[in-house]
Design brief:
By secondary structure, this protein is of the alpha+beta class. Helix content is 40%, strand content 13%. Bound molecules: 1,3-dihydroxyacetonephosphate.
């Protein structure tokens, strides 16, 4: 039995983290958590996510209709975007939307995060595409994001921000942190004359390790090996994933150590 109050407190804690880390300004950003197929908790619209208390948090159904909200609070204006992620990704239990400085700058410049520059980013994210621009609060953003949902666990939103989702609120937040860290490193290394990218072989070894560990979520490493032989890709067949589960953060740290050792770094 989930303790809703505890989850509301956790949403407030993550709200503080995204605000205190400068991943959102003012009242920006939104967070949601799936309780079950018909009930979801979400942040209210128009409040600073850095100063929320549990009574701010709203409850909605799978269509974004209000099930419970305290006086003065309405669900996030981006609730349709969150609901589309849950609808199309049944493995997702939490969605975090923010406007982190570096990732959002890439989204504004129209540059997706695709350069393989460090093992953690390659293993955790692979790459981060940019979903086409949509007007906030309309179905344009959910529609734009939709085509990336089956292949990635984080996307940039053109001229807007970033979206990350995972099996838990903490993992969704960590995904957002990884996106921003990757964007920041990419930006800074570009100032230093341009990053020296990992080779195709190094990337493939990282992908292989990710597959071996059976990490959850969607990732370019999960492309069916048949795709490499010129046969059609089979993202949805499930044959590539081992079905094992593990915490993303623990795995990334363990894998990274091994990979760094193997690469002699
Ligand atoms: P809400 O306060 O309605 O969640 O909107 C914030 C935001 O960042 C919209 O993109």
């Amino acid at each position: 039995m989930v303790n809703e109050y505890e989850i509301k407190k956790e949403i407030c804690d993550i709200g503080k983290r995204i605000y205190n880390r400068g991943m959102v300004a003012s009242n920006d950003g939104n967070i949601s958590v799936k309780l079950n197929d018909h009930e979801f908790l979400c942040t209210p619209t128009g409040v600073s996510k850095g100063f929320m208390t549990p009574e701010f948090i709203c409850k909605v159904d799978e269509n974004g209709n209000v099930l419970q909200a305290n006086k003065g609070f309405k669900p996030s204006s981006e609730i349709k975007m969150h609901m589309r992620v849950y609808k199309e990704r049944p493995d997702v239990n939490s969605v975090v939307h923010a406007h982190p400085m570096y990732a959002t700058s890439f989204a504004i410049a129209g540059i997706p995060l695709t350069q393989p520059i460090m093992p953690e980013a390659v293993i955790a994210l692979g790459c981060v595409p940019i979903a086409e621009y949509g007007t906030p609060s309309t179905n344009e953003i959910p529609d734009a994001v939709s085509k990336y949902l089956q292949h990635f666990d984080a996307v940039l939103l053109a001229n807007h921000g970033a979206l990350a989702y995972s099996d838990s609120l903490l993992n969704a937040y960590h995904k957002m942190e990884s996106v921003e860290f990757y964007a920041q490193l990419l930006f800074l290394s570009k100032q230093l004359g341009g990053p020296k990218e990992l080779s195709k072989e190094q990337v493939e070894r990282l992908y292989e390790i990710r597959r071996k560990f059976g990490m959850k979520g969607k990732h370019p490493a999960d492309l069916c090996p048949n795709a490499k032989e010129g046969k059609p890709s089979c993202h949805s067949c499930g044959g590539c994933s081992s079905g094992k589960s593990a915490s993303d953060a623990d795995l990334v740290s363990e894998i990274t150590k091994k990979v760094m050792k193997e690469l002699g770094l």
